[in-house]
Design goal:
Strand content: 25-35%
CATH architecture: 2-Layer Sandwich
CATH topology: Heat Shock Protein 90
Distance between the termini: 29 Å
Shape: globular
Structural class: alpha+beta
Radius of gyration: 15 Å
Largest sheet: 4 strands, antiparallel
Oligomer: single chain
CATH superfamily: Histidine kinase-like ATPase, C-terminal domain
Strand order of the largest sheet: 1-2-4-3
């Protein structure tokens, strides 16, 4: 996790070395999850993670490569006043 800040914005970059996201558009759909039914029954894998992150940031970019990992960059603009 990296954090950058200047006078106009805060940028948070999260990287992993996981399996990657094969279909980013699909992963951005509300309710989409790769979690098994058993995991979902426990309350995990509700498919709200990426859509909620996008909804709560001013900008969000996702770069992912299969078998190498994913990088998510969220930008939050600082309002003056």
């Amino acid at each position: 996790i990296a954090f950058y800040m200047d006078e106009t914005k805060v940028k948070v970059v999260v990287r992993d070395k996981g399996p990657g996201i094969p279909d980013i558009d699909k992963a951005m759909e509300e309710g989409y999850s790769t979690a098994s039914p058993e995991v979902r029954e426990m309350g995990f894998g509700a498919g709200m993670g990426l859509p909620n992150m996008k909804r709560n940031s001013d900008e969000m970019e996702i770069a992912s490569e299969i078998d190498k990992g994913t990088e998510v960059t969220m930008t939050f603009f600082i309002e003056k006043g």
